[in-house]
Design a protein that fits this description.
This protein is an alpha/beta fold. It is built from seven helices and eight strands, in the order E-H-E-H-H-E-H-E-E-H-E-H-E-H-E. It has one domain: Aldolase class I (TIM Barrel), CATH 3.20.20. The radius of gyration is 16 Å and the shape is globular. The two termini are 17 Å apart.
Length: 182
């Protein structure tokens, strides 16, 4: 089972050290997620991300999936690009690692075959988003597992903590992603 970390949506001091600790702690992949709500902010965030990525080693960068700034994939030889509301399709010549988020079992069925993995969320009540409650009962998750909807290409997200990993493994999830649980 892959352990996947997702950064907070804003840049923090010592983020390079945080990323290194994440990898040293056994996480396989890090999603670098810094959305921007305006073009001016996006330009500033892009510059900050460039500086951050310059400080990481090539091996560390090979474990990073980028959100919102696909140009950084090419500039820094990253692991892949995540599709979301800001980046809705891959560059025409893109052959790299592909991920996306899903918020229903129907979306998982629709998209998982076209991606290396998809996030399914929220599995548990969110830690980082107040009031963002689990969208699935334990029975629904067990049935989705039995029906083959949940499999190695589906990563659990939302309220995931280390103590829940064995439960997620038993359901057949291919990974567990954490942001608030970190």
């Amino acid at each position: 089972m892959n352990l996947i970390a997702i950064t907070k949506p804003y840049t923090e001091d010592n983020e390079v050290a945080f990323i290194r600790r994440v990898f040293e702690s056994g996480f396989d992949i890090l999603h670098l997620r810094k959305p921007a709500n305006s073009k001016d902010v996006a330009c500033r965030v892009l510059a900050e991300l460039r500086e951050l990525l310059k400080e990481l080693t090539p091996d560390e960068r090979k474990k990073i999936v980028i959100h919102d700034y696909p140009e950084l994939y090419y500039e820094f030889d990253l692991k892949g690009i995540h599709i979301n509301r800001n980046v809705t399709k891959y560059p025409e010549d893109y052959q790299g690692f592909k991920t996306r988020s899903c918020h229903s079992l129907e979306e998982v069925k629709l998209y998982k075959d076209d991606f290396d993995y998809v996030f399914l969320s929220p599995i548990f009540d969110s830690i980082s988003k107040k009031g963002y409650k689990s969208a699935f009962t334990e029975e629904e998750l067990k049935k989705a597992s039995q029906d083959g909807i949940i499999d190695k290409k589906v990563v659990a997200l939302g309220g995931v903590t280390f103590d829940k990993i064995s439960f997620l493994k038993d359901l057949g999830f291919g990974g567990a992603a954490m942001m608030g649980g970190l």
